């Protein structure tokens, strides 16, 4: 039995999590769910955005599903805290076209592998007499392991190209180290084409010729920006899943936030959360089950059953129920074929 911690969070996080669990339930998996709290409502109850009990539960789980949380000004970020506590050094952002979503391009299938622990996001800032200074932390260890993950992922998924993104022409030391470590790692993968691009050029290429890329690996801040840009190519943040992965743990979450303005209206798009559960299933070596959900999701979208943000008229619950129904049909069909 796998232990899955569920953190719905705030706002639409609760709604999309409920939708995702409705779909997952149709697979009859040997999962034990344990619910935990984090975010704004949690802070209002306990004075803490991420209680020690939540961290303890996540550390003891096989995987964690994370909905969305509302930021509390001046307080620690729940998801960043979990990334640091569990050393989740990979942020994985698949970019795949979906039927009926209306993205800028069709046929896209690439992934951005973002280093998740360093860069400017270490939060080392201080005021000066005339402004402020932020320190950027880049280590060879972190560069090496994120690049190795990217190449291993390419091999596992059947990709043939890995592109490093940096700004080593200006950030000669920090990004210079990243580029050096990238090519050191690349030597161990002679079957994979390794190339590198400046971040400003990549930002343009993602708009002009995104089909040319397969695996993109980069540092924390560049990855944050580029992955949101890439999400726009396939329909926006409502359809963008992500995974935070370390050596022992994984947290799987939609890219979007808690969206307080539409919370409680039952119109939030559950696609990103549902696709995040497929990333979790793959992480847990349940690729077949993940594929079944993906098939059911695509069939549902092809029928025009979708939420308003991507041109539909259906509620969150209706979309989730439709995906669940399709999933059950696919399962039953597969079972009858085996008899």
Automatic annotation (TrEMBL):
The keyword NAD applies. Keywords: Magnesium, Metal-binding, NAD, Oxidoreductase. It holds the Pfam family Iso_dh. Its cofactor is Mg(2+). InterPro entries: IsoCit/isopropylmalate_DH_CS (IPR019818), IsoPropMal-DH-like_dom (IPR024084), LEU3_arc (IPR011828). Residues 3-323 form the Isopropylmalate dehydrogenase-like domain. SUPFAM superfamilies: Isocitrate/Isopropylmalate dehydrogenase-like. PROSITE patterns: IDH_IMDH (PS00470). Belongs to the isocitrate and isopropylmalate dehydrogenases family. This is 3-isopropylmalate dehydrogenase. It comes from Methanothermobacter tenebrarum. The lineage of its organism: Archaea, Methanobacteriati, Methanobacteriota, Methanomada group, Methanobacteria.
